[in-house]
Amino acid sequence: MFTQILFYLFATVLVGAAIGVITARNPVHSVLFLVLAFFNSAVLWLLLGAEFLAIVLVLVYVGAVMVLFLFVVMMLDINVEQAKSGFTKYAPLGLVVLVIMAVELAQVIWVRHMGMISADELAPVAADYNNTRELGLLLYTDYFYAFELAAVILLVAIVAAISLTMRRRPGLKAQNISSQVSVRRQDRVRLVKMDSEERQ
Fold first, then answer.
1. pTM over 0.90
2. 133-156 pLDDT tens trace
3. What distance in Å separates the CA atoms of residue 43 and residue 31, rounded to the nearest whole number?
4. For 173, left (φ over 0), alpha (ψ -120 to 50), or beta?
5. Are 38 and 67 in contact (CB under 8 A)?
6. What are residue 101's phi and psi, to 5 degrees?
7. Residue pair 69/29 in contact by the 8 Å Cβ criterion
8. Which long-range contacts (C-beta less than 8 Å, at least 24 apart) are formed by 89-95?
9. CA 7, CA 40: separation in Å to the nearest integer?
10. Mean pLDDT of the chain
């Protein structure tokens, strides 16, 4: 009973934070709402017994990816009014996706509630079962190539974010590396020879 209360409590906060991500007027506030959503998702993973996924969600997404998102959002010159103008344009598509996800979630809950999948049908595990070890074995054996491909995709996304921040726009001070490398001493330093003056 107490676990269900915790689940509904953190799930409510998670839904509220997700709504705050798309309705906040300030992009930085949207990122902070997303951090709150990740924290609540990690708590839900803990309630399900997936400790590794919970700690990865906090360390990787909140500790690294969200910091990167925050820097990108702050460095990009985002026109907030222009970004919010397309919110109502994509609202019908978002509602369709929301209905589909709600129906799928309801089907899963209904299947579990009606007893179509009982606990006896699940594979029994030993008392010293470690889900982190099993997940690591799967990632680095059966899904090794997919895991590496995901890493490459994330690297491309980081490079794309950096390139967006370095785009040409008025008032941007950018370095010209070629002119800095090809500079000569004669262009930067001028030696002036002056006659010494005698002290009176």
1. no
2. 888 888 888 888 988 998 899 899
3. 19
4. beta
5. no
6. -65, -40
7. no
8. none
9. 10
10. 78
User: To the nearest 10°, the Cα dihedral for 37, 38, 44, 46?
Assistant: -150
Question: Could you give the angle at the alpha carbon of 9 between the alpha carbons of 125 and 130, nearest 5°?
Answer: 20
For residue 168, name the pLDDT band (cuts at 50, 70, 90): low
Contact 66, 38 (CB under 8 A): yes
User: Are the C-beta atoms of 70 and 27 separated by less than 8 Å?
Assistant: no
Smallest Cα–Cα separation from 49: which of 7, 110, 95? 7
The residue length of the chain stands at 200
Task: Give the burial class of 73: count Cβ atoms within 10 A of its Cβ; 0-12 exposed, 13-18 middle, 19 or more buried.
Answer: middle
Cα-Cα-Cα-Cα dihedral of 100, 102, 106, 108, to 10°?
70
Question: First vs last Cα of the chain: how many Å apart?
Answer: 99
Residue type, 174: A
Report the candidate in 155, 157, 154, 174 with the shortest Cα–Cα distance to residue 72: 157
Interacting residues of 39 by C-beta distance below 8 A, sequence separation 6+: 58, 62
Place of tokens 């070629």: 178
